[in-house]
């Protein structure tokens, strides 16, 4: 059985080749869209990542090519038209929990970096500039951190935050009873926005919460709030946040995801002219930290992604339910 990988990077090949026993693997650097489907030949499985576009039209074309399984080597699945896949009887699997800690740890790394300005200190000291001016941060101890989405990653992040002595306010559509028993304080979204010094997003992107951080939400927040988004770019209305950065309503912004990231992230564009003026504006702020969808990127996570994806594909093709990967539609 052949698996075609799209948006593949050298590290995908390293980890999938390492764990593959049963399949023929074909790697394409290009993202999956309607123009590339023609390369498929006798391929029953496509393996895709966060920025591959699997809308209805693409899934119809995959179906015509005989594709039976769409394997997402990531957790989020907002880029897949699940209804069309279901109608065409194409199985879709993902890796729901490859390493929540990897994302949670990166979230804390971003928060510490933007707050204590270690990225600036590193460069300064290398230039023999030992001045502290401009590097002032604040203690995380005693601050209130609002966590939106208390699933696997939100939970892992709250565990880290507890160690820093922060107060936690949580918001989720479905509060977790076990977390309440552990003393986690669930509040309304409005209360979280009003009372948090730092707000971290850990919910999936859905049609209901698209742009949940918009001008109206920003108005409710504390002056100088720090916002961190390691979930999905579409949760934040970027233009509204830029206005809030300009007015100093937002004191700092850390993003590992960006609405238009498919045109930028995972590519070396250092020789190119970037046409996206919004990200250029964001990059011009001294209090904005951007990483390029890197939060998942640990050895442990890549090993788990490769093993679970290959395992799920094997189990789906044998008509068995996957063990760890959640088969959403089979
Ligand atoms: P999860 O499914 O374990 O938890 C998500 C939580 O969000 C659930 O408790 C759910 O009830 C809640 N939720 C859903 N809609 C909500 C809303 N409108 N408001 C508040 N809460 C809401 O998911 P997990 O594993 O914690 O991942 C969260 C997100 O992180 C993923 O959907 C994905 O977008 C993102 N992610 C980012 C990565 C990166 O490298 N930057 C890597 C992996 C995931």
From TrEMBL:
Pfam families: 2-Hacid_dh, 2-Hacid_dh_C
Domain D-isomer specific 2-hydroxyacid dehydrogenase catalytic: 3-324
Domain D-isomer specific 2-hydroxyacid dehydrogenase NAD-binding, first and last residues per copy: 108-295
Transmembrane segments: none
Domain of life the protein comes from: Bacteria
CDD domains xref list: LDH_like_2
Alphabetical keyword list: NAD, Oxidoreductase
Record-linked PROSITE patterns: D_2_HYDROXYACID_DH_1 (PS00065), D_2_HYDROXYACID_DH_2 (PS00670)
InterPro entries referenced in this protein's UniProt entry, alphabetically: D-isomer_2_OHA_DH_cat_dom, D-isomer_DH_CS, D-isomer_DH_CS1, D-isomer_DH_NAD-bd, D-LDH-like, NAD(P)-bd_dom_sf
Protein family per UniProt: Belongs to the D-isomer specific 2-hydroxyacid dehydrogenase family.
Record-given protein name: 2-hydroxyacid dehydrogenase
């Amino acid at each position: 059985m052949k698996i075609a990988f799209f948006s593949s990077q050298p590290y995908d090949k390293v980890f999938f080749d390492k764990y593959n026993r049963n399949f023929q693997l074909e790697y394409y650097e290009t993202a999956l869209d309607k123009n590339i489907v023609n390369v498929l030949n006798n391929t029953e499985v496509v393996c895709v990542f966060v920025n591959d576009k699997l809308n209805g039209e693409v899934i119809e074309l995959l179906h015509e090519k005989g594709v039976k399984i769409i394997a997402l080597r990531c957790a989020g699945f907002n880029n897949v038209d699940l209804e069309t896949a279901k109608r065409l009887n194409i199985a879709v699997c993902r890796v729901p929990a490859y390493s929540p800690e990897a994302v949670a740890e990166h979230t804390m790394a971003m928060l510490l970096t933007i707050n204590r300005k270690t990225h600036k200190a590193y460069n300064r000291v290398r230039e023999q500039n030992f001045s502290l001016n401009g590097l002032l941060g604040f203690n995380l101890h005693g601050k209130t951190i609002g966590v939106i989405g208390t699933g696997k990653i939100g939970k892992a992040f709250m565990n880290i935050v507890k160690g820093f002595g922060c107060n936690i306010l949580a918001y989720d559509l479905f509060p977790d009873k076990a977390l309440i028993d552990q003393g986690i304080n669930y509040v309304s979204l409005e209360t979280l926005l009003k009372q948090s010094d730092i707000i971290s997003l850990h919910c999936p992107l859905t049609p209901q919460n698209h742009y949940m951080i918009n001008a109206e939400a920003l108005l409710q927040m504390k002056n100088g709030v720090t916002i961190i988004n390691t979930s999905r770019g579409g949760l934040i209305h970027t233009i509204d946040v830029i206005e809030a950065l300009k007015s100093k309503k937002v004191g700092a912004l850390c993003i590992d995801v960006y609405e238009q990231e498919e045109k930028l992230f995972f590519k070396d564009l250092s020789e190119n002219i970037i046409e996206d003026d919004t990200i250029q504006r964001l990059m011009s702020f001294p209090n904005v930290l951007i990483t390029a969808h890197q939060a998942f990127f640990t050895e442990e996570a890549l090993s788990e992604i490769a093993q679970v994806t290959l395992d799920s594909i094997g189990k789906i093709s044998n008509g068995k339910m996957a063990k760890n990967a959640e088969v959403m539609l089979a």
